[in-house]
Specification:
about 120 residues, 5 helices
Length: about 120
Amino acid sequence: MLNKKEIKTISQYIKLFPKETQAKLNELRQVIKKSAPQAQEKISYQMPTFYLHGNLVHFAGYKNHIGFYPTPSGIKAFAKELKEYKSSKGAVQFPLDEKLPLVLIKKIVKYRVKENLAKLNKNI
C-alpha cells in the first residue's frame, strides 16, 4: 500500500481511507470540481489540492473528520456559517458522522475562485 509521501493523484489519496470516508472525500471532491471546473487537481502538502492561479482549496481525511482548507480568507468570509464546526485560521473540520455542508462548501469554493481571479487580474 502507498504511503502519503508516494501519493501522486487525488484518487490514490482517497483510496487510503475506509469506504465510508472515501465516499465523503469523493463527495467533497465532486462539489469542488463542479464549483471550480477550471481548477486543476494535484497533491500539495501531501493533501488533495485544487489549483487555479494559486492554491484554491485543500482537503484531507482523518480518523474522525474531514479537514477542509480554503485559506484564512475563506474561513473569515464564512465565519458565521462555519461557527458550528471546529475551525482555525485556515481550516475547518467536518465530522465524519455528519453530512457534509455541500451548499456551504460550494459557496466557499466559488468565493475562493473569485478571489484568485481578482488577484490574477490585479497582477496583469
